[in-house]
Specification:
The chain is of the alpha/beta class and 239 residues long. The protein is built from ten helices and seven strands. The protein starts with 6 loop residues before the first helix and ends with a strand.
């Protein structure tokens, strides 16, 4: 694809981005995604799983995943992963372009990937490779940006050099996953907006007294309405 940045430029971007974002402090978006993933893993009820996180960024989630089994984390950010390996020696970190890595056919019970799909050039090929690393019946736990919300209710800066961007909506996500997976769940989480009427609806001034009165019930209602920043998908590899 002519418009795809060279891999060294992508690697440079993600080394820089990860070092200044989740390596310093987690965003509320990431915290909510982790909450959902760990809830799904709790539902499996096992502590001997083979788990891989694709696009693990700073590796922040991998130590938490390790309570459920053996964990491999992979990302393009080689410099950041070197620091992650020192922090969590019990996790196996593998740096490199996921599309070129050989992580083993049908090697994992669970594959986690958070906010990676929109940054790959060939999304159908990416999904096929995800499926190939899972055992039949293995579970994909995916988070990706919600195109419906980002395009309508948010002003997002244009991509930086080395950053690929192709958001999907709920229908597009299901269509991408369906050839390789049985989709169990797709829903949105973490309502966020910085323009239009949704900026007011999601503002802290409005939500602080509502949350004090009703807890998180209104936020969860907005998530069920599809107004979350993130789409979460739980899918089973076809047997």
């Amino acid at each position: 694809m002519a418009d795809v940045a060279p891999m060294p430029l992508q690697q440079s971007f993600w080394n820089s981005w990860n070092a200044t974002h989740n390596e310093a402090a987690l965003r509320d978006v990431s915290i909510r995604q982790a909450e959902i993933v760990c809830g799904w893993l709790d539902g499996i009820g096992r502590r001997d799983l083979d788990i891989v996180e694709v696009g693990c960024g700073t590796g922040w989630l991998c130590p938490r995943l390790a309570q459920y089994g053996r964990v491999t984390g992979t990302d393009l950010s080689d410099q950041v992963l070197a620091r992650a390996q020192r922090r969590a020696p019990h996790v196996t970190y593998v740096a490199g372009d996921f599309m070129s890595l050989d992580l083993g056919a049908e090697a994992f019970d669970v594959l986690v990937t958070l906010e990676v799909l929109s940054h790959v050039a060939d999304q159908p090929a990416f999904v096929r490779k995800l499926a190939g690393h899972l055992r039949p019946g293995g579970l994909l736990m995916m988070a990706t940006q919600n195109r419906f919300v980002l395009e309508r209710f948010n002003d997002v800066p244009p991509p930086s050099p080395g950053q690929l961007r192709r958001w999907v909506d709920r229908r597009e996500l299901r269509a991408l996953l369906d050839p390789e997976f049985v989709v169990r769940e797709v829903f949105s989480v973490t309502p966020k907006a910085n323009r239009g009427v949704m900026r007011l609806v999601n503002s802290s001034r409005v939500n602080r007294p509502v949350r004090a009165l009703l807890g998180d019930r209104v936020e969860r209602l907005k998530e069920r309405m599809g107004l979350g920043w993130t789409l979460m998908a739980l899918a089973e590899r076809r047997r």
